Fold:
Amino acid sequence: MSVDNSAAKTLDSTDKAILNELQSNSRINNTELARRVKLSPPSVHSRLKRLEIEGFIRQYATILEPEMIGYDMICFINVSLESHDIKSVHGFWMAIHEIPEILEVYRVTGNFDYMIKVIIKNRSDLERFLVTRLLNITCVTRIQTIIVLSELKSTTVIPID
Structure:
C-alpha cells in the first residue's frame, strides 16, 4: 500500500491525540475519548468521521490471542514467482486473497518476490497449507518457510508524534 506522506501534515496535535488513544483502545466511547483529548463529544465525533473518510483510520479490529483459538504457529514464507508478467502477478494476488491463513503479504527485494506471514495450527497443518494451498498457485515456483520459535514483540501501534 502506498500513501502520500504529505497527508500526515494535515494532522494537528488533537488529531494525533485521538489516533493515539484509539490505538490503545479502539473500544473507547466517544465521551471518554473527548474527555481525554479535551474536546466536546460532538467535536471528537466530527474529527473521527473526517479521519475515517480521509483514510487515516483503515478499520477497527479485535486482536485475538492465537493460541487460545488453536493456532500455535506463525510462519514467514518467502515466495518466488515463475514469471512477473501481469497475468501471473494478478493470478498470485487473487489466489492469496482467498487463503484465510495468510495474514500479511509484502512484495520485497532480494532473492524472493514476496514475503507472506501465515498463521497455522501445527506442523501437519503447515504441510497441508504448503502442499495444497501455496504450491497449488500455478505461478509459484520456489518457497522458503521460516517457522517462528517465539514472539518477542507484536504490536499494531504506529508511533504518532
Summary: The chain has five helices and four strands. The beta strands are 73-81, 102-107, 114-120, 140-147. The two ends are 22 Å apart (CA to CA).
